[in-house]
Amino acid sequence: MFIWTSGRSSTSYRHDEKRHIFPNIRCLTYIPNGISKLQSVVWTEEAQCSLLNASITETFNCSFSCGPDCWKISQYPCLQVYVNLTSSGQKLLLYHTEETMKINSECSYIPKCGKNYEESMSVVNVVMENFRKYQRFSCFYDPEGTQKNVILTKLYSSNVLFHSLFWPTCMMIGGVAIVAMVKLTQYLSLLCERIQRINR
What we know:
- By secondary structure, the chain is of the alpha+beta class.
- It is 44% helix and 27% strand.
- The protein has two domains: 10-39 and 160-199; 42-155, no CATH class.
């Protein structure tokens, strides 16, 4: 429990205290987001990958928005791309980005979900043909060997992670400092009242 909430319910705060407290409680939601991004910053080393196989294996269900509070079910084809990591000679599954693996770990590329399956298939076919056309390309791998796969495009770098954690942390520290000053002002005000009563 935070020190500024102990002993009182949320309804007993004055308006000026609420204004400082609740934005900073919401600010704490950046922690899970930062941890998620931190887990994604493992594919740090760039290397060369050569294509071994690119094929559409199966279809998966997905949902797309058809308006406010409206969702419909569709499908998308799953493209799997296996590559040879030239620095180690390993056969690894390639993912488009870090997020691709989180959405579906069986697919290398996931098209945007839409009502027209043929359009999704057309997009995936173009991607597959591009892989077959460009047999060698840059990729990123985990030098620690924790992730047994590689990615084509990095969404999260150490710089992105720094900014996603640094600025919310500054906001939270600033908010805590403001609340602490409010509490200190209240304490000094009460102390002055007591001193005045004693002097009378």
